[in-house]
Amino acid sequence: MGEKWLKERTGEVVTQAHYAQRGEVTSEMAHVAEREALSPEQVCEEVAAGRLVIPANINHKNLDPQGIGDRATCKINANIGGSPMRSDAEEELKKLRLCLALGADAVMDLTVGPRVREIRETLLNSCPAPLGTVPIYEAAERVEEIHELTADGLLEVIEAQAQQGVDFMTVHCGLLRDHVPLAVSRLAGIVSRGGSLMATWMQHWDQENPLYAHFDRLLDICRRYDVTLSLGDGLRPGCLADASDTAQFAELKVLGDLVKQCREAEVQVMVEGPGHVPFDQIEMNMKKEREWCHEAPFYILGPVVTDIAPGYDHITSAIGATMGAFHGASMLCYVTPREHLGLPTLEDVRQGVVAYKIAAHAADIAKGRPGARDRDDALSRARAAFDWDTVFDLSLDPQRARMMHDESHVRPEDKKAEYCSMCGPKYCAMKLSKAVKASS
Predict the structure, then answer these.
(1) Is residue 82 within 8 Å of residue 120, measured between CB atoms?
(2) In this structure, what CATH number is given to the domain that contains residue 163?
(3) Sign of CA dihedral 151, 157, 160, 166
(4) Among 16, 250, 355, 366, which residue has the fewest nearby CB atoms (within 10 Å)?
């Protein structure tokens, strides 16, 4: 792009929104424009309007910027991170590398436990994708009981993570004291880990959410490092029976007000969404967020469309994620097969990322994004030509596709043959079709 684009961001305010609102194209905007087949000016305009965010902390030195918004292709985020029961930096680094190899656009470190800072530092140093966190997890680790946490202590953690280079942070600012009783009658209650921690604190002290009460201080930190706020849905429904209830939508309205405050402060912001939602309610949920949150990018978990498939929730949620993305969600947070059951393994991460790459890609095709189907058509041409190597290379998971093909063929010569083991040479429809075409 040359020297015409702003290379360095300096001063008291370094956010993409700050420069975009002045019509200045940063190098990150130019990079996203090239990736998304948009003009730099279009990206700048979308960032200025708050419809697109580019999480890009000035201290994340190895960052490959991504655009998250309606004009961009649908992105996927992969959650990794250790727990108090199993927490190992090397294991999480393997998960990170697998996520990136399979095409995850962003990664969140959800580590809880005593090694939270060590694991985050390890991941940041090896992560070119935007990296996110939930700061209350580290803040909770610093105290014996959650009610011992203070606003100063929580903001101190947020600033420390910003200094480290974290690009986006989930903060549960919209869950207010008055909302907690609304969740009491729910079947599943509060299923958000951060939301439940915040609710516990408010109930103990009978005081307002400290992040809501001190939102201006939070914005000040974000302005100095360009941390994108991901306004967390602490009251997201954790089962179908709780979907689209009063508690969920009461929080969403507060998030809409906070979006306006973020934009006035030149802070990038996106909004997080449900959760468990019946298939027929997904479109309505997407439309409410768009209206109430002023077209801020929507970052959704699933939604999970049925509660009866533990061990297969990468499938139940990818169904909902496709619908959500088609109706306007900008980024999908993956769900692994081990959701609701335990900390995901390396294999769970693989299945979660691939399921969500499928969901995001299917939505991009359905929305008619230019070039979205090019890879599909290229793979289909290779398949019709029995060009197996190209089929594998164009697959979302080349290693898995090659393994499944090769292990089903006993003789080495069959691995390159113009048929697969399902039909063999006599009954292969594509081989017969080629013969029909040749004789026509």
Answers:
(1) no
(2) 3.20.20.540
(3) negative
(4) 366
